[in-house]
Design a protein that fits this description.
Blueprint: E1 3-4, E2 18-19, E3 53-58, H1 65-75, E4 78-83, H2 87-94, E5 101-105, H3 106-114, E6 144-145, E7 148-149, E8 152-158, E9 160-164, H4 176-179, E10 189-192, H5 198-208, H6 222-236, E11 239-243, H7 246-254, E12 260-263, H8 265-271, E13 276-279, E14 285-294, H9 301-310, H10 314-324, E15 327-328, H11 338-346, H12 352-355, E16 358-360, H13 380-390
Parallel strand pairs: 3-4, 3-5, 10-11, 10-12, 14-16
Antiparallel strand pairs: 1-2, 5-14, 6-7, 8-14, 8-15, 9-12, 9-13
């Protein structure tokens, strides 16, 4: 599964990279009563002397000289960056033992926690991970299991419904325009090209076919998965195109090949097309969130903790958010300048009501994360196999 990197603001539409998917679901995200078996890995109790370096696996735009060089000046920790293109690649790289930190998306983070590849974090050693971190990014199942934090939030975003108001003249409020066979936009719909997109179908089914009993779009039993695949095959008949990188999506909209479909706010902005509008439909949507995670056997844990604290400050977290195109985790950034305030407004940074409707990406696992124990849920491999049948 792929997730697009938002294009750094300075590079605009000139840069496009594919990434894998993210986090997990809204109201069911706090682990609450859900208990998932994880390896017992000790938590670091106190800081020691800084090592000479820190090795980081990150999405493009998360580790840049503008802030990495300053960190090195302050700590003596040289920052060595490895850009990853997918969550699968991140998991593989972290399992080599060569990296201390990763900017994990939700599907990678859950695998890393359950696999014993990352360690629980001592928040007392990360003072910037404090009250200014938005509430909706704390205690989520993609970086917190059984009440134990494993990740430091970086940023988040929603997968919105985008349309061209010169073609779709009545502003849509529902995903029905993208899913129903009689859609007035049939033939000009664009959809996300990845197995995780099955969750988008599940969200629509939650609203339109409640008898299926879907409570969490990432916790689908075999019957629920089959229903989602049927809906996706129905949508395939009215699809104009699929996309998995930002340039293709922007080009499809700006060229008039498609008029409605999934998008990100940053892509709408980068398109520089005043005719493109966006909304979070009444059914809600999927979304993504990222977090710093420390390797279970990190060679440079003190520099790793220092980096997580440094990048959690309002200034640096804001730079990452603006460079990547997402809502920052540290809300204090929004008050630092007019430019910051405008960025936060565009990406709904402090609007928890908005994000309460977003189900953040996570990897489906056999243990039903909606709390059911009487059935086995489908896992990501089953989703991958099922997705292959959608497009024929």
């Amino acid at each position: 599964m792929k997730r697009m990197l938002a294009v750094p603001a300075a590079a605009a539409a000139a840069l496009a990279l594919a990434l894998t998917g993210c986090a997990t679901a809204e109201t069911a995200t706090e682990s609450g009563g859900l208990q998932i078996d994880v390896p017992e890995i000790p938590m670091m109790e106190e800081m020691g002397e800084f090592e000479n370096e820190v090795n980081i696996v990150a999405w493009s735009g998360f580790v840049e000289p503008e802030w990495a060089d300053k960190f090195t000046e302050e700590t003596g920790c040289k920052v060595n960056r490895k850009i990853a293109g997918t969550s699968d690649e991140m998991v593989q790289l972290m399992r080599t033992g060569n990296y201390d930190l990763v900017s994990a998306s939700g599907d990678a983070s859950l695998r890393l926690i359950v696999g014993g590849d990352v360690q629980p974090l001592n928040r007392d050693l990360i003072p910037n991970f404090g009250d200014d971190i938005v509430e909706g990014m704390q205690g989520q199942i993609y970086d917190t299991l059984n009440g134990v934090p494993y990740g430091v939030p970086i940023g988040r975003g929603a997968n919105i419904l985008q349309w061209n108001d010169q073609v779709i003249t009545e502003a849509p409020t529902s995903w029905d325009i993208a899913w129903e066979a009689d859609s007035p936009a049939a033939g000009s719909i664009i959809a996300y090209d990845a197995p995780i997109y099955i969750a988008d179908a599940a969200i629509y089914l939650m609203a339109t076919q409640p008898d299926l009993g879907i409570e969490n779009p990432y916790a689908l039993d075999e019957t629920q998965l089959a229903a989602a695949i049927d809906l996706l095959k129905q949508q395939n008949e009215i699809i104009g195109d699929y996309w998995a990188d930002p340039v293709k999506q922007i080009t499809a909209f700006n060229g008039g090949d498609v008029s409605v479909g999934t998008s990100w706010e940053v892509l709408r902005k980068l398109s520089e097309n005043p005719n493109l509008q966006g909304t979070l439909p009444k059914e809600g949507s999927t979304g993504w969130s990222d977090a710093w995670m420390l390797a279970a056997e990190a060679n440079n844990p003190n520099c790793g903790y220092a980096w997580m604290d440094y990048t959690s400050s309002a200034e640096v977290n804001g730079k990452i958010a603006m460079n990547f195109g997402m809502a920052p985790a540290n809300a204090a950034f929004c008050d630092t300048s007019d430019e910051a305030a405008a960025h936060c407004e565009l990406f709904n940074a402090e609007d928890e009501e908005y994000f309460s409707k977003v189900w953040f990406w996570t990897t489906p696992i056999e243990q039903c994360i909606d709390g059911r124990t009487d059935v086995t849920c489908t896992n990501f491999q089953q989703w991958t196999d099922a997705w292959a049948t959608v497009k024929g």
